[in-house]
Amino acid sequence: MYHLVVFASGGGTTLQAIINAIEKNELDCQINLVISNSPDAYALERAKNAGIETYVIQNKTADAIDTELENLLAQYDIDLIVLAGYLKKIGSKLVDNYTIINTHPSLIPKFCGKGMYGMKVHEAVVSAGEKISGATVHYVNNQYDEGNIIAQTQIDVLPTDTPDDVAEKVKAAEKIQLIEVIQDLSKK
């Protein structure tokens, strides 16, 4: 069994995709813990509904969060940490001790880095007149969105597409791609 910890800051639709894939036996995995920086994140509710333990980060400074999570995660069997819409930078203690992947809603190296997340990415794609966008799964390192790319999936951006249209296309591609990446990593 491949053991996951999922970090999420918002609604948890990507977390739900992982839960669904596990329930359908598409992934031979178990989510041991869901962590959020926001006590109001609906991702926590999704985890609770699936019987998964949850944790809300208590500290506010980057160093304190890094130490808090290092101490917390030492209590778990972890093969992979998945950032699924998690909006905080991961500290070096975690980066140095765990395999961590992130899913990003653009084709890195375009439209990524600090401050580029969610609708901000899709608005930038449309504003730039891009003809393609997509999703990237990459390893997490000490810089925003600069870790080695594992997989990318392209979607077409039509001249009539709004940022919402692009977001829907990317979200659909992102979830499929992430499940495939987790599946591949779990077999190594």
Describe the structure.
There is one protein chain. The mean pLDDT is 96. Helix 1 packs across helix 6 (163-186) and helix 5 (118-127) packs across helix 6. A 7-stranded mixed sheet has the order 3-2-1-4-5-6-7, with helices on one face. The chain has helices at residues 13-23, 42-49, 62-73, 92-97, 118-127, 163-186; strands spanning 2-7, 29-36, 54-56, 80-83, 100-104, 132-139, 149-156. The chain contains 6 helices and 7 strands. By secondary structure, the chain is of the alpha/beta class.
Summarize the structure.
With 188 residues, the chain is α/β, with parallel strands linked by helices. The chain is built from six helices and seven strands; from the N terminus they run βαβαβαβαβαββα.
At the first level of CATH, the class of the domain at 2-98 is: Alpha Beta
Strand content: 15-25%
CATH homologous superfamily designation of the domain at 2-98: Formyl transferase, N-terminal domain
Describe the strand arrangement of the main beta sheet, using strand numbers.
Answer: 3-2-1-4-5-6-7
State the CATH topology of the domain at 2-98.
Rossmann fold
Low-confidence stretches: none
- Major beta sheet, specifics? 7 strands, mixed
Question: What percent of the residues sit in helical stretches (DSSP H or I)?
Answer: 25-40%
Structure class:
alpha/beta
Q: Mean pLDDT, rounded to whole units?
A: 96
Oligomeric grouping of the chains: single chain
Q: Describe the global form.
A: globular
Taken in chain order, the helices and strands follow as EHEHEHEHEHEEH
CATH architecture group name of the domain at 2-98 = 3-Layer(aba) Sandwich
Write down how many β-strands occur, each being a DSSP E stretch of 2 or more residues.
7
User: Radius of gyration from the CA trace?
Assistant: 16 Å
What separation lies between the terminal Cα atoms?
A: 12 Å
Q: How many helical stretches?
A: 6
